[in-house]
Amino acid sequence: MQRQSCKRxxxxxxxxxxxxxxxxxxxxxxxxxxxxxxxxxxxPGGSHDLTGRAISSVAATYLGQPLIxxxxxxxxxxxxxxxxxxxxxxxxxxxFGGPGWNSTLPAVEGVSKGPDDLAAVCRINxxxxxxxxxxxxxxxTLKDLIEWAKANPEKLAYGHTGPWGAADLPWKQLxxxxxxxxxxxxxxxxxxxxxxxxxxxxxxxxxxxxxSLPHVRAGKLRPLAVLDDKRDxxxxxxxxxxxxxxxxxxxMWRGVLVPKATPRPIIEKLGVVFKQITEDKSFxxxxxxFGDEIHYLGPDEFTKVWREEFETHKELGKIYxx
Length: 322
Known about the structure:
Elements: H1 2-30, E1 36-40, H2 47-63, E2 67-71, H3 78-85, E3 93-97, H4 99-109, E4 118-127, E5 130-134, H5 142-151, E6 157-160, H6 169-178, E7 183-186, H7 190-198, E8 204-207, H8 209-217, E9 221-226, E10 252-259, H9 264-278, H10 281-289, H11 299-320
Parallel strand pairs: 1-2, 1-3, 6-7, 6-8
Antiparallel strand pairs: 3-10, 4-10, 5-8, 5-9
């Protein structure tokens, strides 16, 4: 009797698993049947905002439905991340993720949502922050800025988009390596940071090329250092921080994440759709105009890269949180 009961239980479990898989495949085959929401958890005017709108401009061709970008800033990206993590896992609410709110904050502070709470669909691209000052600044090089900051502790006002974000964590690294102390001022988004430095409220910022290059070309901002292991193609004459003696490398990725329980067939379908978007000539042209490139990774590859980054940032947090 016990054996028969175990067999019945096993058969029931197999049948249940098969029916769930079949249901998910049917869901994926029909998906999407309505517009899809892409939540951008940071403010307007930044690289995420610009890239998100570029994606939405071509997405309907491949998705079969409109992709609507919704700004939901707050908590350095944690408000939007938590909103998506709690949403129905049906593929209709996506998060436009980034390392600050989906790797560093959950790894270091235990807030926002990381790879234990969300599932990876894909990475679209990445870019590295660049240290800028105004063109009327006395700082001509990164060395000038660091020497002044050393001679004037806590006087240099530096702007970024939030604690442990893409312009904050590498700045913490730079401060640690150089021994400087500065006043670090968070802002809602990349657009706000730019307005602050252009308005003379702060002396230096870390920003992505997508939102800052137009101001460089207009002669309003001077780039001092690229925080990557290679120079930015849009600014070939600007040395990396590493070339200037400070081994600071940070990559601000832009990727698509979904609630953890989203069925795998839907994740795979979305992965294909976003791969097609990254190959769209119009989209590629827009990304290139921002000074960026495509660096697509599918669900499995991106999951691995994201998890490795999360664990690395845990260790960095132990150093820079002190």
